[in-house]
Amino acid sequence: MKLSTLALSVVLALGAGAASAAPLVLGDQVNVENQNGSTWTPTPIAGDSDGLSTVVSYRLDGGSTQNVRTGLHVLDYKQVGAAVGTSWTQFLAFCLEPDVKLADPFDNPYTVKTLADASYGTVAGAIAELWGRHFGSVNSDVTASAFQLALWELAYGNTNRDLVTGDFRAFSSDARTLAQNWLNSLDGTGPLATGLVVLKDQSGGYSRQDLLTWVKVDKPEEPGNEVPEPGVLALLGVALVGLRMSRRRPLSAA
Known about the structure:
The structure is a single chain. 21% of the residues lie in helices and 22% in strands. It is of the alpha+beta class. It has one domain (3-245). A six-stranded antiparallel beta barrel has the order 2-5-6-10-9-7. Strands 4-3-8 form a three-stranded antiparallel beta sheet. A two-stranded antiparallel ribbon has the order 1-11. A hairpin with a 5-residue loop joins strand 3 (53-60) and strand 4 (66-71). Helix 4 packs across helix 5. It is globular. The two termini are 16 Å apart.
């Protein structure tokens, strides 16, 4: 799906529902749900339930080839123990585990942690640079899928930052080509995104699916590194104002 112009009402809907919900804070426990019928973002777009996503093929640890839909998710959170009537807050997120499908029912509750505290400390700098350099380019199916592939390569196992060899391998596609280019650009000199947090799944082993998102960080001395808070992510993170979906070829199911 390529984005060109979307009705402003859809953009505003993505930011709705956050007025009475508290922002994410490290250490919080939150319940995650899908309140809008599709985990893909933005949703809905003229009846399209696939959002910013496309199907790719990958292989883990020399296993069998898997075909999955990858991209940027839109979900909803609410603090555990929130008062009756507290609204759900929409947020955008990428998955950190390639071999676990993100689907209802979610493995609630999740705990809000830093990358380091969520066991991603060895790649926290690379993930922050990937976000700082390239998240602003996530505005189509291919770019959203490429960002997810690059993130999986960094987050899964011992990464060699190569999508052709190693523990995580993706097969030839426009998304893989772009993801590899982005991985090759990570030399430690790029801008580092601040405010990245992980919604840490309470389970362990193969059923775990951690979610990477971001919150606003007030650092006046680093204005270029501020990351938008949940509720306005659709406006600032994906630049959807005035965008509309153009026609695309259908994709096979994952």
